[in-house]
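Journal club prep — side note

Before the paper discussion, L.F. wants everyone to see what a predicted structure for a comparable chain looks like in token form. Sequence:
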Amino acid sequence: MAVYMITLHSYRSWNADRRHVRRDRQGIQKPNLKLATHRDQIAKQQAVELNLKERRIACEAVIEVCQNTDRKLHALTVVPNHIHILCSWTNEQLPQNAAAHFKRIVGMKLSHAKGTTGHRWFSRGQDIERIADRKHFEYLIQTYLPRHREQNGIFWQEMKPSEGM
């Protein structure tokens, strides 16, 4: 069973006017003010920053998607400008399709709660990383994802049978 970390970025949260890592892994890119200005001019709406209520809705939506599919949710964190989903599944589904499904359902739930249609919640694409080994998995569960609470994030982790008793 493969484990993936899927990251969904909120709409316009990562503009080219600051240093950033390219999604295709070409390393850290320098700010590009010309590209940032162009993106600002063609933007359909303001940048999305999820408030606390929206972060809770997004968290609940991801959990619901996993409960209604064959995906196992290991951990999840939702901060104002992105969502990390650590999950696995046993079928042959492509991770890109799983990410698109998460994005579609979370966006639908957010729009429903806001009473809107056509609202862009997420940027195009997503980051998908296959987790190679148990050490990396444990680091994500124990350190990286919980640290997002420092960014006003919501952290959720599956409960082990020995926990919470």
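L.F.'s comment for the group: The chain has a mean pLDDT of 85. Keep this in mind when we get to the figures.
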